[in-house]
Each structure stands twice: as C-alpha cells, then as structure tokens.
C-alpha cells in the first residue's frame, strides 16, 4: 500500500488547467528538451576527452578516477544546494545560471593545464548538470495539466538521449584525428576542442531561456497573487489566442491555494553575509520538512530506491559495452577506469580504438532511447508505479543472466540491451515520482535530497571499484530487485494533481 499523500484541491488546480493547452506549453517543453540536449552534450566530453588528456597533462590512472569521483560529488552537492536554493529564489533564474555553469566549466576545462583545474571544472560541471536537470523539470511540471504531466516530463529525456548519441558520435569521429596529431606542435583537433564544443549548446540555450516566465505555482507559494495571475493570463492568452482579460480568474480565487508550510515568515536579510546565513538556515528548514511525519515514508522509499540505481546512465552504458568485450573470457575483471571511459587510460599515449567496443557502446545506447519511448507511451496510461516495478524486474533478470552467461555473445548483447532499456525507463519514471510527491514549498529540496546519497554512493564506488564481472552483475541484480519490491509502496499520482 502506498504512503498517503494529500494533493492540491480541485478548486486550486483550476487556475492552471483553465489556461488551456497550447503554444506556451509547447514552448516550455521545447525549452526543457533543449536544456536536456545541452546537458548530454556536455556530459559526453568526460569519457572521451579525459583519457586523451593524459599525453598533455600529468594525469595518472588514479587522477582520472578522481576526476570522475569529483563529477559524482558535484552532482550530489550541486544537485542538492542549488536546487534547494530554487525553492527560495524560484526556478526561472536557476535555469540560465546552471546552463552558464555548464558552459563555463567545459570552456575552462579546454584551457586547463593541470589536474587541479580539471578537477574544479568537472566538479562544477556536475553541479550544473544535476541542478539544471532538476530545475527545468520542476518548472515544467508546475505548469502542466495532470493528464499530460507524465509523458511531457519524459519528453526532455528523449532529447537528452539524442544529444548523448549525437555528441558521442561526433566525439568518436574526432578521436582518431586527435590521436593522430597527438605529438604535433601545431594541431587543430585536440581533446580541448572536445570540451569547447561540448559546452557551445549550453550558452545558446541559456540565452533563449530568458524567454521563460516564472512558475505560477511558485508565485502562489510566495503569496504574490497579482504576479501569479499575470503569468496565468499570459499563458491563457498564448495558448488560446485570446485577450488575457477574458481569463475568468481573480486574485482572491488564488489565495490559499499553495501551502507555504510557514516558510515565508522570515525577515529580509540585510548584508550579503546575513543573506548567505539566512539561505543556509532556510535550506536546513526545507530539508527538515522531508523527514516530518507526512513525508518521511515517501522520502525513505525514494532514497532507498534511488540508492539501488546509483550509477548514472553513462556509466551503465560503458560498463555493459566493456562487459561484451570480455565475452568468452574467464578472467573478466572490472576496475573504475573500465566503467568510466571507453579508451581507459594509457601513460604511453597508445589507444586501442576498438571498433567492436564502440559498436557495442552505440548499440546499447540506442536502447536508452527505446526505454524512454516506452515510458513516454505508458506512463500516463498504466501509471508510474507499474512501469517502475516492471522495469526493475527486467533489470534484475537481465543482470542475473549477464552474471551467469559468459560465452554467448548474442545472448549477452540481448540481456545488455534489455538491462539498458529498463534502467533508463526506471530512472526517468522515478524522477517523475520525486517531482509529483512533494509540494512546491520544497519540491527542489526533495529532488536534490532524495538523490544525494545515491550520488555520493556512486562516487565512492567509482573510487574503490575492483571486482570480478560476475559479482558486479549479481550485486546490481539483487539491488534492482529489492528496488522493485520497494517501488510497490511509492505513491501513484497518474492523472491527479501534484502534492501540495
């Protein structure tokens, strides 16, 4: 039985649904998709560019692992504090800010001449990607009607995967040229170019994000009723091609719609120091809401389920591709480098460029798109909970199959494809549940807090990973099957108003 949740009263859902469905929603979905595409193009620079930097910068194998750990820790810390700050400042300003963080970190990394600079840039990149992904989806969810919310929140994930595949393809095409010119004094194609190009999309989308309007739910939460009404009128006029004054709601109809949980009673800080202290205290108060009786059960469930899927999709993709390279071998053994970079590292500046490895990588990557397409079609028809449970069971079964079948390539490829497809489906569906299950007052804090432990766990596993292939698959299989059992108790809000 799922934990009890209280959703927004019908009379308070009307102001948003009465704006209709039209061009404004398509624009916001398009902006969310563009942001997701930018996140993917920036992310893919890490597994391709970092190993190629070995010849130019003193990067040992341990240092390359540390780079990836910094990325996970950046996602954990940035994904928590920056997204929590969006519950204080609003989502609108955080979208261009985080996109600028992505652009700045990739651009600066292209000019790095030492490990410290690279570590700082990758940490910042993790902060920006995690925060942007949460802020954009929360902002989008807060204007969507209940009956379309699930599929519309999955749509940006499809563009994330397109960006991921396209940027990986371009990086793969650049890699041979970069290696060929590695020892030349004058060269146009380097790993630095990869970093520079990977952030270009972010700066363009950041400029376009200036057109985004503030979230009406957030304005209602802060009790700015006239401003919220103006936004709702604007949405109504754009969606219906009618004059905004024909929108039949008034400021008094909006009062009391969103519970502020007594979070708006603090005095305005004066100095910059007081503002920082007040922000940290506010984040502490927001976090404490997650463990109060009303939300404690769902918070524990989401943290536990997220912990079972602690690796990012990129790491899973490379992990499965590397596993297929060990097909038929009894000495399959994974280290951190094996599941973080396609080329691994080479202090002798020699790279394999295995065509079979890249082929398997792209074949498995296509299944990310298939999984998200399935979710797009099913999430508003059969609900979130059933898709998560089904996806976890498929993940577990295919993972156990990979753990015990070592020498039949076609079977391994099929099981890997099923695993990748189900993993991407579950990951996207869980993000929808996180957004729906918490109120506007601390929705951002919940999005960052429920993933905080999983991201830290991912970083520590990357740091210490050294295990036989069979054990890694059995371990992951057991985790996702446990997640399937926990998912039965998650709240189901298909076609219902979000929790307020």
TrEMBL record:
What's the short name of a Pfam family annotated to this entry?
MFS_1
Organism of origin:
Ignelater luminosus
**Stretch forming the signal peptide:** none
A molecular function (GO) term: transmembrane transporter activity
What Gene3D superfamilies does the database record attribute to this sequence? MFS general substrate transporter like domains (1.20.1250.20)
Looking at the keywords, is Membrane present? yes
| The protein's name in its UniProt record | Major facilitator superfamily (MFS) profile domain-containing protein
Q: Listed GO cellular component terms?
A: membrane
User: Where can this protein be found?
Assistant: Membrane
Keywords (A to Z) from UniProt: Membrane, Transmembrane, Transmembrane helix, Transport
Membrane topology type, per the record? Multi-pass membrane protein
Q: Where is the Major facilitator superfamily (MFS) profile domain?
A: 28-495
Q: Which residues span the membrane?
A: 23-50, 62-83, 95-116, 122-140, 152-173, 193-212, 295-320, 361-379, 386-405, 411-434, 471-490
């Amino acid at each position: 039985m799922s934990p009890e949740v209280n959703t927004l009263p019908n009379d308070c859902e009307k102001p948003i649904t009465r704006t209709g469905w039209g061009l404004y929603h398509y624009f916001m979905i398009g902006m969310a998709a563009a942001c997701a595409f930018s996140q993917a193009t920036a992310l893919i620079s890490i597994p391709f560019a970092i190993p190629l930097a070995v010849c130019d910068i003193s990067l040992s194998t341990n240092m390359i692992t540390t780079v990836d750990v910094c990325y996970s820790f950046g996602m954990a810390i940035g994904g928590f504090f920056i997204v929590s700050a969006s519950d204080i400042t609003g989502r609108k300003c955080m979208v261009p800010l985080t996109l600028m963080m992505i652009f700045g970190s990739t651009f600066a990394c292209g000019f790095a001449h030492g490990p410290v600079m690279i570590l700082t840039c990758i940490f910042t990149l993790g902060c920006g990607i995690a925060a942007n992904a949460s802020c954009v989806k929360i902002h989008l969810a807060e204007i969507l009607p209940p009956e379309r919310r699930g599929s519309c929140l999955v749509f940006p994930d499809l563009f994330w995967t397109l960006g991921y595949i396209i940027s990986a393809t371009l990086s793969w095409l650049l890699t041979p040229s970069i290696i060929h010119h590695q020892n030349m004094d004058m060269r146009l194609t380097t790993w630095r170019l990869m970093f520079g190009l990977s952030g270009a999309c972010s700066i363009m989308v950041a400029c376009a994000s200036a057109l985004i309007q503030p979230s009406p739910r957030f304005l209602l939460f802060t009790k700015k009723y006239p401003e919220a009404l103006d936004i709702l009128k604007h949405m109504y006029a754009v969606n219906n091609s009618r004059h905004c004054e024909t929108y039949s709601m008034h400021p008094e109809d909006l009062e009391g719609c969103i519970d502020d949980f007594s979070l708006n009673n603090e005095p305005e800080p004066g100095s910059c120091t007081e503002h920082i202290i007040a922000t940290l205290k506010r984040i502490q108060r927001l976090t404490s809401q997650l463990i109060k009786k009303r939300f404690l059960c769902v918070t524990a469930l989401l943290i536990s389920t997220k912990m079972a899927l602690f690796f990012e999709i990129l790491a899973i993709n490379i992990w499965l591709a590397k596993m297929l390279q060990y097909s038929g071998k009894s000495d399959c053994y994974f280290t951190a480098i094996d599941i973080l970079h396609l080329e691994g590292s080479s202090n002798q500046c020699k790279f394999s460029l295995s065509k079979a490895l890249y082929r398997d990588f792209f074949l498995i990557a296509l299944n990310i798109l298939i999984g998200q397409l399935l979710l797009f079609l099913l999430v508003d028809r059969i609900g979130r909970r059933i898709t998560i449970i089904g996806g976890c069971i498929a993940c577990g079964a295919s993972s156990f199959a990979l753990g015990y079948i070592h020498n039949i390539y076609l079977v391994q490829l099929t099981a890997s494809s099923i695993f990748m497809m189900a993993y991407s489906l579950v990951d996207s569906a869980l993000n929808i549940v996180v957004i729906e299950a918490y109120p506007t007052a601390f929705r951002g804090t919940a999005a960052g807090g429920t993933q905080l432990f999983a991201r830290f766990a991912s970083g520590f596993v990357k740091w210490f990973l050294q295990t036989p292939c069979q054990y890694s698959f059995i371990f992951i299989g057991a985790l996702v099957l446990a997640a399937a059992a926990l998912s039965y108790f998650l709240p189901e809000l298909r076609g219902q108003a979000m929790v307020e």
